[in-house]
Automatic annotation (TrEMBL):
Keywords: Nucleus, Ribonucleoprotein, Ribosome biogenesis, rRNA processing. Residues 318-332 have a biased composition (Basic residues). Belongs to the MPP10 family. Pfam families: Mpp10 (PF04006). The gene is Mphosph10. It is found in: Nucleus, Nucleolus. The keyword rRNA processing applies. Its main location: nucleus. GO terms for cellular component: Mpp10 complex; small-subunit processome; sno(s)RNA-containing ribonucleoprotein complex. GO terms for biological process: rRNA processing. Residues 1-23, 49-98, 214-237, 302-418 are annotated as: Disordered. PANTHER family: U3 SMALL NUCLEOLAR RIBONUCLEOPROTEIN PROTEIN MPP10. This is U3 small nucleolar ribonucleoprotein MPP10.
Amino acid sequence: MENFLLSEEKLETTKDKSKPLEDDVDLFQDLQSENEEEDNFGPMYQEFFEKQTNTTRKTTKSKKSVRFEMDEEKSEDNEEDTNKPNENNNEHLSTLEMRSERINKCIAKLEEEAISDNKPWALKGEVAAKDRPQNSLLEEAVEFDVCTRPAPIITEETTVKLEDIILQRIKDKAWDDVERKIKQTNAPHEFKKQLILNQEKSKESLSQIYEKEFIKQREAADPENKNKPEEEPKEHKEIDLLIKELFRKLDALTNYHYTPKQAIPDLKIVNNLPAISMEEVAPVATTDASLLAPEEIQRKFKAPVLGKEERTSTDKKRERRKKKHLQHKKRITKESKLKEMEKNGFKPKHNKDSAQIELKRLTSSGHQIKELKSVDDKSMKSSKDFFSRLQDQARNEIDGKKRIMKQSNRNNTKKFKK
């Protein structure tokens, strides 16, 4: 006890010395947080009581302690702080700075783990079986989508429920098994006889057939009331009486000589036109020619329209061939017509073509032919020649008229003399 008291006195003296005066107090200094105050531990358990024995230490070691990741990080940070006491003593950091340092260290550690190749296989994305250890997938809790309905967890309650359902089905005789079918061992000729159908058309109507079937079904359901006559319901009787009374009144209105009006056939206008032309709406004062499309009036050329300057040598040759072909066809048709006319006895008029044909025939036979050149064939090289010729023609006409007048006067004088 004396040693303990001496140590306490020493501590008090050191505390009194360490206390600053009022003048030396810095009012703008950062206040310590609760966590920092807790870090400055007070008197320890070992100062008042004896140290723990080996047995107690073994029991504490045997117990499993629960520790979290943040606690481990804090402990590591504390270890690093203990390894560097000089730096922490020199730097006076605030609580916010300390906290930010811890967070930064935590982030740096996580980043290193993410970048490093020593990551677990579950965090490496798509991994093949060869890249992961054997049966490692069974140890992991993997999340995946399954389309099938999951099987129920087998417990005592589920087994009891299943047994109750099975017993109830046995009591109700509700079996789901497929019934066994036995093949009929009938002779083939009997089977063929059954398939023969009556192909004769029945004289009864469908309503009568359905009525008979309905009566048979009713008789099979109630065999006791088979011979009893059918009782007509009261509603049917009332309807019959009302209809008879109505008909009687209508007959009285028509003096019991009702003759219906003759049916007049309805007029139906049938147009033999296509449906499209009937549906089209056009003005009244239009013709079929105005309703025609431009392609229907004149056929569209396949090739593009080109001018004379735009044509190439191939285009010019094509046009020339086309022109020659048309001329050849026209000449052949003309010759064929002339031959037919000659066969029938008709002589063609003197045309240029016929004259040329005859001229060729005469020259081939050896006849001499003279060409007669008329005055009209003279070429007029200037306007003077043209007007001189025109003047000569006018004079000739006037002279001719004068001659006729003189001759008529002479004839008249001779008559008077006689």
